[in-house]
Fold:
Amino acid sequence: MSSIEEAINKLKLGDWIDVYWYDASEATGIPPQVDVETYVHSTGFFLAVKGQVRKHLILAKEIIDSGEAYHYNSILFEMIDKVIVIQRDALDPRLKKMLKKAIKPEDQEAGRPAEPSNAKKR
Structure:
């Protein structure tokens, strides 16, 4: 298990975190003569780990209308450089309860992504 996976496995729903990661990029025209890595710093509340084939960290970036909707990032584990916990259990309890309803119970523990019944074991 990588150090990134170990850090993510310790996260709980509602932890306020910073995630530093490498994003894919797109362009048109002549291939660039410079570094094409896109380093991103995202901050928000940890929601879950999702993914049937590859694990993704789900991070709520913006919470809209008191939890009726939210904007989120889905970040592939392999693209994450580091995760820093800013504050444990930082999400307002009322919002946490609303967001919890949108997440399957088995996804609320960071280290336990939902497994499809027909998933191949590697």
In short: The chain has two helices and five strands.
